[in-house]
Amino acid sequence: FLTEGIRGFEIVGVLAGQFERLRKAHELLEEGVPAAQAGTELKVNSFFLEKFIAQAKSLSRFDLQKVFQELLLCDESIKTGALSETLAVERLVLSLCLEEYAVSRL
After folding, report:
1. pTM for the full model?
2. Closest by alpha carbon to 64, among 32, 7, 24?
3. Cα dist. 71→13, 56, 77, 85 in Å?
4. What are the pLDDT tens digits along the chain (106 aa)?
5. How far is CA 41 from the centre of its chain?
6. Which residues contact 60 (CB under 8 A, 6 or more apart)?
């Protein structure tokens, strides 16, 4: 994506938004809200709802906290210049893929 002109902070923003939706879905499901209602509230297309709900259920609060820490670290690294955009985003992707909660479950 970086080679196509999409900036690192845009990638981080999209990922943060998706994980925020997963966090909200996780909370709604824990409160007993039916999956269909949670999907409607979070504006998840019905075609993707089953997979989205499975993703939300597979992540614990601790998993989500770790994901948001990684996203923040990447964002800070880009904005402060500690790492180049490419390196920061690559580090983020590797970090997300190597953790137990890994994107492979997503």
Report:
1. 0.81
2. 24
3. 9, 18, 10, 13
4. 556 777 888 889 999 999 999 999 999 999 999 999 999 999 999 999 999 999 999 988 899 999 999 999 999 999 999 999 889 999 999 998 886 555 545 5
5. 18
6. 101
- 49, 36 contact by CB (below 8 A): yes
Give the integer Cα–Cα distance in Å for 46 and 23: 18
Instruction: Report d(CA 37, CA 105) in Å as an integer.
Output: 23
Cα–Cα nearest to 35, from 53, 21, 55: 53
Amino acid at 49: L
Say how far apart CA 64 and CA 43 lie, in whole Å. Answer: 20
Q: Tokens 């939300």 appear where? A: 56
